[in-house]
Amino acid sequence: MKRNRRMKSILVLSLIFIIAFTLVGGCAKPTAPAPSPAPAPEKSDGPAQEIRFDRNIKIGIVDTYTGPPTVYTYDARDGFTLAAKEINAEGIHGAKIEFVTRDEEFKPDKALSWARELITREGVDVLCGFMSSASALAVSEYVKDEKVPTVVWMAQTEKITGEAGHRYIFHVIPNTRMSGRAAARYLADLPYTRFALVGSDFEFGHAIINTFWKTMTELNPKAEKVVETFWPVGEPDFTPYISAIRAAKPEVVVAAPGGADQIPLTKAIGAAKLAEEMVVYLHIGTDHAGLVALGQEAPEGMYGSSPYHYYYPDTPENKAFVEKFHAEYGRYPNFAGFNGYITAHLIAEAYRKAGSLDTEAFIDAFEGLSINSPVGQVTMREYDHQLIQPFFIGKTVKDPGKDYLIATDIVMISGEDAIPPLEEIKKIRGE
Amino acid sequence: MLNVFSKLTKGQFFSFKLLIIGIVVLILLFAPSYLSRYYLYLVTLILVTVLFATSLNIPLGYGGLLVLHQATFYGVGAYAFAIFLKQGTLPILPASLIAPLIAAAFACFIGWICVRLRGLYFSFLTLAMGQLVWAIIYRWYNFTGGDDGIHAIPVPDFLRSGSSVFYTTLIVVLISLLLIYIIVKSPYGLTLQAVRDNPQRCESVGINIRNHRLIAFVMGGFFAGVAGVLFVLLERSVAPPMLFWTKSVEVLIMVLLGGMFTFLGPAFGAVVVIGMMTFFGIFTEYWLLFLGSIKILLLLFLPQGVLGYIEEMMAKSAKKIEKGEERGYAQG
Amino acid sequence: MLEAKEIHAYYGLSHILFGVSLEVKKGEIVCVLGRNGAGKTTIMRSIMGLTPPRQGQVIFKGKDITRTPVHKIAQMGMGFVADNRRIFPDLTVEENLDIASRGGQQKGAWNKEKIFTLFPALKNITSRRGGYCSGGEQQMLAVARALMGNPDFLLLDEPTEGLAPLVVRELMEQIGRLREEGLSILMAEQNVRSALKLANRVYVIDRGEVRFQGTVEELEANEEISKKYLLV
Amino acid sequence: MLRVENLVKSFDGFLAVNGANLTVHEKQIVAVIGPNGAGKTTLFNLITGHLVPTGGKVIFKDREITGMAPHRICHLGISRSFQLINVFPQLSVFENVQVSVLSHQKKVLNMFAPAQKLVVEETYNILEKVRLADKAREKTASLSYGDQKILEMAIALGNYPELLMLDEPTAGMSPEETKATIALVQELAKKEGLTVLFTEHNMNVVFEISEKIMVMQQGRTIAQDLPDMVRANKQVQAAYLGEES
Amino acid sequence: MDFLTLLPDFSTMTSQVFIGLSRAMILFMVAVGLTVSIGVLRVINFANGTFYMLGAFTAWSIAMWVGGTAGFWVALLVAPLVVSVLGLVVEAGLLRRLYNRPRLLQLLLTYAVVLLFNDITKIIWGVDFKTIEVPLKGFVTLFSNVSLPSYNLILLASGPLVAFGLWFFTNHTMVGKITRATATDREMVDALGINSKKIFAIVFMLSCYLAGLGGALIAPTTNIVVGMGITILVNAVLVVVVGGLGNIWGTFLASIIFGVGESFGLLIAPRFAIVFPFAIATVLLILRPTGIMKSVW
Q: What is the pTM of this model?
């Protein structure tokens, strides 16, 4: 009885402590990042005057760290951390990158709340992250008012740089429009006309399929849609869709599964041996995260795409990145790891170019910025802030050295080919 | 730690409570002048949640109705307001009045069906119907924006600064709480508590218990709708997770942690839970682990809620003085 | 056999028993008499460990069982027949008996055959669900169920409540036969008349206190007690 | 005033009440007696609408009220107490009675007046009648058993009923309390002009105050007559009193 | 654009029915554990979804450790046992304190356990996508046009098997009978000399075993991720309520109604398919508030 009461008092006290702690923090007024003791700007009499930043650059990451998407968000965070190490070794005009992460649980209201916290309490210079499209869109509107540059690195919604685009938002992942166009470009070269279009029934699935079909019919007017169907997200059993596809007798199946649907869908395709009968194309179908989970169960000969494969292109830059990543975390990066990595480098490069910690200068420098990434040159398009990055489409194959399948016959669709022309974006934005 | 209160008698005890509330309100009134922007936002968010939690407590704490899906009305209020503003069908003032009424209408419909059932069956029917509303909003792209939600909701400029949103929220929440307080202390409120304690007896003194419960349910829905409107003012964005069932569980935990049999318990619970979420969210990646454990400890050891516990201790001390420690209280 | 010493029992905050002491010797039938709400059922529950007394002691076969878990007390040989019978309604009569069986193969142990010789009425309804039995049948089943655990001490809480007079008579006879089998019995009753026919000794309870104890003859001689506490 | 005709109630085939008949005239004190399980409480629940009869009729003041909702029946002027204590444990004694007074005055949907200040006088009047006024501010749970039973009755009085139904009003009371309670019932009936229908185990009480007795056995009415006639009724003696005396 | 127009009617319908049935069995696996704990312990255990998740994760670990197709079958045997032992720990440590608490408190406490275990699972198993190789490959042709993956047959069979097993357990074993008795009157069981604490622990372990079994069975068809328990939980809870609390056959029937209902929902209005289970639950609860079969409460 006594112990119980003491327990209760302790609980109440610790609670009050926690609340007080959280709230008292707020009474100390503004929390502008404390200037780190940077050496006084050295006077240089050379024409190229060396710039020294008087504080570090602070970056806030808001992403989903609970639930199914974590397989990607952890990679993105780790890729970012790796890049930050590289950057800090060198410094950006004497400054380093610091960053903090917040978990938004795939909930837009939480994302907004954390974005506010990072901007107004932590005082971050740049915001990154966002697995969820809804979160990205919600935060995008907020940072527009706050004038804080924000890089979306996982949500693929085309709205981010389309109708909802503005000066402060940047997109570092092929958006749904690009993915759809890339797929259409690739598949239009094949001699087929009968298409089955399927996808997860949420914004993302519809967006990819719509763009794909629009581009496909432009490229190949003879293309014919024999079936189109969408399944609820989280569908446990794909057999009915496979039967429906089979029955319609298409030559090509284009599938846009969202998030965790990819694994069971690929399994079902493998079990039904659908890839042996027709061309099956899966958006993000050859990404490492999915294939490694499926092991030997993934179907051979299935077409799939990914913005990144750790084994392709076989360039020294890529190898260096993969080796470092593997040494650090004991695994190979999936496409999210790559995105996190180049995002950090893009931000660092923009600051280098800007030579100032001023937000507007940073954005001006970011617009049109090109850097060399493990997959070659990538460029931030000036007008809509969509990163022009290549997109890879390949075919699955068993690799004797590995216990999972990899992509082969990889074709690179260059960013310029995939990205929608400026006129299209302008039209969407009503300009 | 609570020895301070042992010097208070019952009447003083009440004025002491009033004093504390007065001080809190006074502190809040000047909040924008000493709080940094983030904490001003956090306090605004807490205020919205305070209203949300208190709205749940009308049917739950006072009516004894175990509503498992209160977030439905919060979400419906927010969505209705968002859609009015986004489509520009209504100016902001009427929209902010009609949106809670729509939430109340939903509550009326759902409640009308649910109050026929007793106990847990009632609870689960509210859960099922709430999820139904969620699923429809989640899917109906053209109208509700589907899973992407609605963003960039056009709120007039004068409601865009942190302090104007704060004051609007503060005023609306205070008025709502006052209204709820008046209702709870009215004959309706008294008889509602009687219905909670002993529905059979209430029937036999001539109270239509179904009506009473329905009214409580609708009122809860209305004030949840008000909270939803305030949320939109604050965040200018809505998305389906707002009315997913886990949101309802979250707010239920707030009410229970604070204490469902005290008027300010749910409000206190909202402060506690949001405070803890922020605290752990900032300081650790495994915040769920900490939050979950603390919730378990609190629910296990303080089943009457934190404020309920504090009040009980205060009341006990006050009583001891009054009765001159005549008899010790057995602790159950 | 059983001794309760100064037991105080509570339900939550309300104090029900105020220092009740009583004793049952081997082979006795002892009756606890009193009005509705006098505390009879609480005495039974306290002894059985269902409402453990906060103060005082219960001693059974020389052992202090005040803090012993209920099932251990039952295993020591105490049978319990609850006041509203508490038959498992979803289980058949046979299943009700089966799950209570703890006799094993030892000689003289209660088994279903032996039960059916004592309560022939149960034999014909073995597959009927407990919930569908009549009051009398349920009462017999409740006693039979308690016997299946081979107790040597039986707590009977108002066994005649709500039964037709004829059934009461039959039941009382059967209880009498249990004494012949060597069982000691503590019985709570409101039905004074039928209880007195059977009992060796009597305790009269009112408001959680023992107001009278003695033999049946002594009680019958004491009109004041009967009038005041038993409304006879 | 109240007429019960051939009332039947079955629970899953078990006939709890099987042909009950009862007539209560204005300002009469009527007792319903019968052994445990005879169906007295069920009969009460059927009259007050807590249970819906399977068959038969209940007529109150020339109006059929069979199967009507309990709260509506109450507003017609029937009010009852319960056998087991059935009060509002979390409310104070005063509030317990206040609830029923508010209900009687149709003020329960008033949401904006402070309840504290409403119907105070009426409530105190009733509490005074049953001699609980000095305990008005106490928590119900701290009352003695006897006082809770009285409070039970006071709640019923809060509705200003024409017909007061008491289910075992003296069950579990001490002889002194019983005596006081009976006096109270008689006094109320006389002063307020109430009609009283009650069930009771204690035969002394029954024969002392009732003007008419209805005897039930196994759900059936086996006699309905003046006390002396009932006492003399052979069937009643055999079925019910036989056991006790 | 549904495939109603694209397929011959009969085979669409039948295949849809079979798909709905295997969907129903998945649901049943989660719901049955829930209904057992509700029926006997009277605790609505939200953590049941967590044990389902743990079943899948444990099965994965075991399958990986053993390797090959045999790995899965070993996992199917062992994983539920591991989960039920874990359940015992939770029961003894936490749930035991809840049996006499208000229902709302029980609900929220078990929900807090869900949060806790989600993080613990993340710490133990990490965040990678995980999946187990399907142990039975190939298809079974049922009618000329309808074929099912062979593994679905196992799922289809497991539901009725589990339901039948449970029925046998509760009606024809001594422990089962005691369990039924405990469900209605715990005190009386104690008074008969049976340790009801032990019975409760056994029942809770059984319910965890069933949840773990469900998780293990489903593991090969799906993506094993943290949080998989939460998504299915609310449907499972509704299935249990619609079926009649604690009624195994009711749960079975309700699962089928939900599963097949959603399948046909896909035919009628694919976009609103996820609305169907909730709509069905709402309608059924309005029509039969205490469930389609007798509730034990």
A: 0.90
